Amino acid sequence: MRLEAEFLCSALTIAECPRWKRAEIALAGRSNVGKSSLLNALARRKNLARISKTPGRTRCLNFFTVGDRLALVDLPGYGYAKMARAEAEKIGRLMEQYLRQGHNLKALVLIVDARRGPQQEEFTLARFLQNRLSRVGNDAHLIVVATKCDKLNRAERGPALRRFEKIGAAPIICSATTGEGIDQLRRQILDVVSPHRTDVPSVTGQATTQASDDS
Length: 215
Ligand code: GDP
What we know:
Elements: E1 5-11, E2 23-29, H1 35-43, E3 61-66, E4 70-74, H2 85-101, E5 105-113, H3 120-136, E6 141-147, H4 154-162, E7 172-173, H5 182-191, E8 200-201, E9 207-208
Parallel strand pairs: 2-4, 2-5, 5-6, 6-7
Antiparallel strand pairs: 1-3, 3-4, 8-9
Helix pairs in contact: 2-3
The structure holds guanosine-5'-diphosphate.
């Protein structure tokens, strides 16, 4: 299964976002959570996500095309302790606007450190997604990823995963280091535009029943 992503452009405002018919899947996570490593692992490219980290692009929405119908939107990393407050607020506003208004947004991949579990910021992002329906009349799926799972031993996994229960979607357990969960995440992302659809957890945590795809 391939996910061939190519960097297209960066947007510092909603007005700068591309206008197209592609389904968009956004990736969000706090700074240093492993979002770039995950994007590289998904695309099987070493340095694809480096673009999002170049000066000037770290506070942008960075758009990557995948095939003809899909785009990945790398949202700016949040929660960086050394970031100036004004800068953090700008990033927060841009993400909020995108999550509330992005008409093509079909899913949000919320990347969380498996050891830390979801915090206030992640609950807030999930809530923005829930609020979309009334604004754009278009629901978007929440895909939660518990990453860096290689740092958990077997005994730590259960308690760590229980910390995800409140966010309302069972996490995909991933590691960019070992490759665990990457195929599953790639499949869920590609399923958004696939004619063979699968059970995708909605933001409310209830799976939407669809035809399955075992490819
Ligand atoms: P970003 O700021 O969210 O884009 O995070 P990066 O992808 O740059 O990763 C931040 C740090 O975490 C780097 O030192 C990575 O090598 C490390 N890292 C990323 N993913 C994993 C993982 O799955 N397991 C482990 N052990 N380390 C990881």
